[in-house]
TrEMBL record, chain A:
It comes from Microbispora corallina. This is Gas vesicle structural protein. PROSITE patterns: GAS_VESICLE_A_1 (PS00234). The keyword rRNA-binding does not apply. Residues 128-138 have a biased composition (Basic residues). Residues 1-10, 113-127 have a biased composition (Basic and acidic residues).
TrEMBL record, chain B:
The keyword rRNA processing does not apply. This is GvpL/GvpF family gas vesicle protein. Residues 40-53 have a biased composition (Basic and acidic residues). Its main location: other. Keywords: Gas vesicle. It comes from Microbispora corallina. The lineage of its organism: Bacteria, Bacillati, Actinomycetota, Actinomycetes, Streptosporangiales. Residues 15-65 are annotated as: Disordered. It is found in: Gas vesicle.
Amino acid sequence: MTDPRSRPVMRESYAPPAPMGGRESTNLGDILERVLDRGVVIAGDIRVNLLDIELLTIKLRLVIASVDTARELGIDWWEHDPWLSGRDRELKDENRRLRERLAAVEERLVEREAVEAGDHAPDEAAAQRRRGTERRRE
Amino acid sequence: MSEYGIYLYAVTPDVSGNATAGTTPDEATGTTAGAGPGTRPERAADVSRDTRRGTGPGPGGGTARLHGVLGGPVRPIRHAGLVAHVGEVPLDQFGEGPLRRLLEDLDWVEGVARAHHHVVEALAAAGPVAPVRLVTVYTGEDQIRDLLDRRRDDFADLLARVAGRHEWGVKAYVTRAAPPAPPAVPASGRGSASPGTAYLQRRKASLRSREDVWRAAAERAERLHAALGEIAVAGRRHRPQDPQLSGRSDVMVLNGAYLVDPDRDGEFAAALDAFRGEGMDVELTGPWAPYSFTSLDLGSDRGGGTR
């Protein structure tokens, strides 16, 4: 059952061992996912909230490498994870910023058109378009 | 309230006498062969007994006393045909409040995780083992005896299932080393595209080819998992690891674990080798204690069946 060669050499006590770069069979990630996520799960008398363990694994980045890659592979569990859905807000913010910039560009465009066309009431036209833009922005 | 808690590492069958679980693995006596009386049937129990006595190498040879979390000794609690392997831990670290704080400290977690793993591996070397999840702490031994009483059948089933088998970890990555040649954008067509358009076309093509590489790798990983599953007694797919933990920048497409009979190890390795190359790199780790095949949820009242 055992191959002594590949059995990890362990320290006697707990001392921070090799850095994460040290791979082979004692890769910290491999160990962590085993001791945290697998085996027999029993509630001891000292209550460690299950949630804590989940948060921990997220913090320790036992999560999928890249959102885009994962989505392409059809893995999207985190989309339903409130913890990780903060991305939503970023997207909304970016969206809002882009809309504002677009509105500003359109406005200037209108002004220039008005000038070039020699319109008699450029300010009026621009103002109208601007109002339209603002309404769209809502 | 005592200032120490009882940390539970793992459960093994008690093969020392009366209530034998009948799961003694054949090789339990083999690991320390050549050491005179090493053929006694209570081989697995020797590990525990040695640790209790705190002697040097026991009669079996290689079983030095076991140390666990914070360097503390590991000792057995025998009950109901099972052995719970435990150690005392200070509640100023393993109490509820301190734990909540310390679980955020990666160095602390790493130390505990490695010590825990060390104990599990040592026990696995001697016989079947059911590892218990990290930081399962009780206030007294009675609670642990009670647990063994209540769950003896669950533990016995589980231990019988993994007896004489070990776990291999298989990770497959998409290698960036072999990117498909960027498809030449057809220069013909509607005359010479503007530089901007050409750029966008190139970008689109490159994205598509990268997608293709990933999709192909995901399919290959699927087939690899199936092939290994045919040889293994059981297989599990776990969530792919983040590059920080895998230590590689390549994208992981398979993070599998397989419970294998040692006499099929060769076959297993051969099946694995057949999938190396062609844009996919495969990594084998282990043998591990059967962590992935001793999943038993006793935390709820769902009856605690194996999953």
